[in-house]
Write a structure and sequence with these properties.
about 240 residues; about 75% helix
Length: about 240
């Protein structure tokens, strides 16, 4: 629009339109209007850029705000999964389990999420990551509470069910950690323990390996039982 106005003003001056005397006045007015258009466009563009930068800063501050709580809850999931692997493996090989109380498998509830006003400053993707992780974490808590209330026996199948639930929740926690704090230490007191991301990957890998080993033992036991039954069965004449 500003370019068109400048062009019209230039043509008016060159062609002495409508008259030689008024052409200069008309051209000046058009040039002035063009300057106003340009000024308004610059101001609007600057305002939009400033608002975008402010929104980005608020998103980053919100991520920093929720990071300590997220890291703490995810780290506890790592611990819970490691203890479940130990109990599941012992039950699988029919040994005495470590006997961790069920209450130790209950994830801690977040305090800041989702009531803190900073939650509204997160990007839609980051907000969704927190929702998915904390929702599955709450599901683990509900399972543990139901088992405690119903006095559910903690056999190999129960440990496997809870192990799979925590593993799934931890995988969602890993996605949140990758966005919020990919380089955060698992334990500030033990730097040698590595990053939270690495510890998550190790625990999930160990859980998968424990399940595969259990399935292998179960299949071997089934085959052995079938052979034993076949050996005891009366032979047909």
């Amino acid at each position: 629009m500003a370019a068109i106005t400048v062009a019209v003003g230039g043509v008016a001056i060159l062609c002495h339109f409508p008259t030689k005397e008024s052409a200069a006045s008309l051209g000046g007015a058009l040039f002035g209007a063009a300057a106003l258009f340009i000024g308004a466009w610059v101001a609007e563009t600057t305002k939009a850029a400033s608002e975008k930068a402010a929104a980005a800063r608020k998103m980053e501050v919100a991520k920093i705000y929720f990071t300590p709580e997220l890291a703490r809850v995810v780290a506890q999931h790592v611990y819970i999964l490691d203890r479940l692997i130990a109990n599941f493996t012992a039950a699988s090989v029919k040994r005495v389990t470590p006997g961790d109380p069920l209450t130790s498998f209950r994830p801690k509830r977040p305090v800041l999420y989702p009531t803190a006003p900073q939650f509204g400053d997160l990007s839609e993707a980051d907000a969704a990551r927190l929702v998915e992780f904390y929702d599955t974490s709450h599901g683990v808590t509900e399972t543990v509470d139901a088992w405690i209330e119903n006095r559910t026996p903690t056999d190999v199948n129960a440990y496997n069910e809870l192990m799979q639930s925590v593993q799934h929740s931890l995988a969602l926690g890993q996605a949140a950690v990758a966005s919020f704090c990919p380089d955060r230490q698992y334990s500030p007191l033990m730097p040698a323990s590595g990053t939270l991301t690495v510890r998550i990957q190790k625990s999930i890998s160990h859980a998968k390996a424990a399940l595969q080993a259990h399935l292998g033992r179960s299949e071997a036991a089934r085959i052995a039982q079938e052979r034993a039954s076949a050996a005891l069965a009366p032979k047909k004449r």
